[in-house]
Amino acid sequence: MMLRTQISIDSELLACVRARASALNISLAEYFRRLAERDLAGSPKNVDRSIVFHLGASGGADISKDKDRLIGEATRAGRSRPPTAL
Asked: What is the pTM of this model?
């Protein structure tokens, strides 16, 4: 069952929204329905928060002990390349 609702929106934003809906060949109401459905579909209900604690896990590598050597190698490699045109 469809229900009617009313919203307040800035006139400039409304003009942009109308133009976008027109470019998509859909009504203004259909445009707002699609936006709402896309927004609600994009928010997962059950998120495993423990995955945050494993971000960047290297499996035992310790790059910090070789950082000075690695930065030096990267710097030297960067100097040997010709400059790129902008």
From this structure: 0.48
For residue 56, give the DSSP letter.
T
Which residue do the tokens 């003009």 mark? 15
39: Cα within 13 Å, side-chain hemisphere: 6
Torsion sign across C-alpha atoms 41, 51, 71, 73 = negative
CB atoms within 10 A of CB 31: 16
Question: Which residues have CB under 8 Å from 37's CB, separation 6+?
Answer: none
Share of the chain above pLDDT 70, in %: 67
Separation between Cα atoms, residue 42 and residue 4, nearest integer Å: 24
